[in-house]
Amino acid sequence: MAKWRPTRVWKHIQALLRCTGNGGRRQSCRGIPNVARNSSDKAVTKFVDAFVAKKDELAEELSWLMGRPKSQTPGEIRGFEKHMISIAEESLKDIPAFPKKDGFDRFIRREPLGVVFVIAAWNYPYLIAVNGVVPALLAGNTVILKQAPQTFPCAERFGFAFESAGLPTGVFQFLHVDHDVAASIIRNPSVAHVLFTGSVRGGREVAKIAADRFIGVGLELGGKDAAYVRRDADVANAAENLVDDAMFNSGQSCCGIERVYAYKLGDPLSSDTNLGPLVRTESADLVRAHVKDALSKGAKAHIEETLFTASKVGTPYLAPQILTEVTHSMRVMTEESFGPVVGIMRVRDDAHALSLINDSEFGLTASIGTKDAKVAALLADEIQTGTVFLNRCDYLDPALPWKGVKDSGRGVTLSAIGYV
User: pTM of the prediction?
Assistant: First the structure.
């Protein structure tokens, strides 16, 4: 077990990078072989099985790390399904060029990039990381994982699971480092690609550093995801799903609903709502500031904070809040809150709803509630997001590409086109 102690000393990090990368391709170095893709497939499959088998143990640890209720945590680990493994061979095989040309065998071939540096986020530390790590390994790359400080132990869990799965030593590594050292790793010539999940500010810094070397960068950043409930929607179903999504994980989800546009309002509250604390006090302070700003500009709050005795200023515990009478002059409707608050705004018609949904710096996902799928498809074409849901929200389908537009990022994970 001791050999999976994280590398912290810079000279050791430099040695690790020299060992795992050589001109952008995997090489042999102190036991790091040129692993065939089929052997990687087997080891990654065993890794997923080993991880899911420990979901209850890992769920409790994750609850201690970030405060998510234990009842909600195993679902993240159950999300380690095997779709990306099952489509790897087909997705990575040579693509024939069309039309065929007599006397020529023309094709496009995917080749491993080399060292892929995955920088994961704390809010879904396992699911976010696995969506970058597994496709990179299956494509023949070597991976270095950095988890956020709040969830450093999650990277170690990956290491133990890969070791037990028989992945050759060194093909997967993890580092516990700060932002400055992470920046130095990106500048290192051995790193061929960076996958970053985090804030818009962090994404800009990663992109600037990587631009000096002309290496690829995948960025999954913030969101201010909107839902539009049309006149013909099942309002009870929409209320249940949208509030559950907005409050799940204490609202700390990049694709969680933070804005709702609707014609009519129902009572979406449930007496058995269960929330944990936010990841840190500063996060709760930001949400409080958004709510205070909205109330000062005429918004109406619908939840009494006194109903949640743990909710106190100066702590990460925060009561959920639903606001109406909101406008886009309020921070809660334009800035990422990343907490258990949602603003609900009345709209006149489809055109009004579309203009408000697109009036955002972000573009990760959106949701449309309607019984008319054809109209929803037409509206979706006008919405400036990477994904549009119909009568649901906040869902990852590994068969579909996951991407953001505008300040929500660039690049793609998941699906056949999500391989590095």
Answer: 0.87
